[in-house]
Amino acid sequence: MLLLNFFYVQMEQDFHEIYDQDLQYKGTWTQALIQNAAFPILIPLFFIFPKPKQNLETNNTRFLTLRLFFLYLSLGVLVAAHSKLFALGKLVSNYGIFMLISATQLIFTAILTAIINRFKFTRWIIISILLTIVIYVLGIPDFGGQPQEGEEYGYNIQAWLAFSATIAFSLSLCLIQLGFEKLLVKTKRYGNKKVFRMVLEMQICVSFVASIICLVGLFASGEYKELKGDSRRFKKGEAYYVLSLVGLALSWQVWAVGLIGLVLYVSGVFGDVVHMCASPLVALFVVLAFDFMDDVFSWPRIGSLIGTTLALGSYFYTLHKRNKKKMSELN
């Protein structure tokens, strides 16, 4: 979020002074591609981490490979759609409305996880979810790429963009969890163990598909023609333009690997809770790093930062109880 703000702060003046309304939104395919394109840096890590010995009792290997192919393909489409909608929604929508609707993603994640993954909720997890939604709404960080008056789309379009991006993100988390549980763990592809190599495989394959889709969109829309002009108009110069894009691409991969790791080792709901609970902390960093007008770390944000401890604590309490129950059953 810090790098996104840096990028748009450097581009904001020239976008508003030079571009008309249609050209204002040309950077969305670029931002969508950046969210996925740095996956090659994970390939060396994939080979460095040891692979467990595959269980020889695994049957239907060809069918398993086919199912994995369709899983990665569908997830790649979902991630590309979310990346595009997320980038477009922030630039054409009222940022407050967009993020307020985006707060419902945890509700969609919970509902879809209950249906697709048969996830079992406890009262402490429900409390954690409700607290997280409140925390996310109160602790929304400011964004330097917000549209000016007259550049926003109609409220119906804004709402559909936000809801579409939200559902795509929630559904992708549920399908990732389903892929781990049904294809990678239960089929004993990795020796019936949860290992970090699974996370890297998932992210590399999904990002590869998403990057191809975003690359096609970049050239089909003609947006690639604007890249050279954007680099020249970047206030800090072309070198900083390239560095900011590289930094964004790398940070998106770190974020994605962390999120998918939480899905593997815990659940999609927990991954979404942690992701949304980071909102007030990000808001604090944005306030400290940028001098946005009227943007301060207000009391609601301070309260949301304190509430993060309660939201995560409620979920961790449930995990502690479940682990304790498993240990007692083993003994």
What do you see in this structure?
The chain has about 325 residues and is an all-alpha fold. About 75% of the residues lie in helices and about 0% in strands. It has helices at about 1-20, 30-35, 45-50, 60-90, 95-100, 105-115, 125-140, 155-185, 195-220, 225-235, 240-265, 270-275, 280-290, 300-330. α1 (about 1-20) packs across α11 and α5 packs parallel to α8 (about 155-185). About 40% of the residues are buried. The model is unreliable at about 20-25 (pLDDT under 50).
Total beta strand runs: 0
Q: Which oligomerization state do the chains in this entry correspond to?
A: single chain
Q: DSSP helix count?
A: 14
Class by SSE composition: mainly alpha
Radius of gyration: 21 Å
Approximate helicity band: over 70%
Question: CA-to-CA gap between the ends?
Answer: 46 Å
Overall average pLDDT: 84
User: The biggest beta sheet, please?
Assistant: none
Order of secondary-structure elements: HHHHHHHHHHHHHH
Transmembrane segments: 29-49, 69-89, 95-116, 121-139, 159-178, 199-220, 240-266, 273-293, 299-318
GO molecular function: purine nucleobase transmembrane transporter activity; purine nucleoside transmembrane transporter activity
Organism: Arabidopsis arenosa (Sand rock-cress)
Family: Belongs to the purine permeases (TC 2.A.7.14) family.
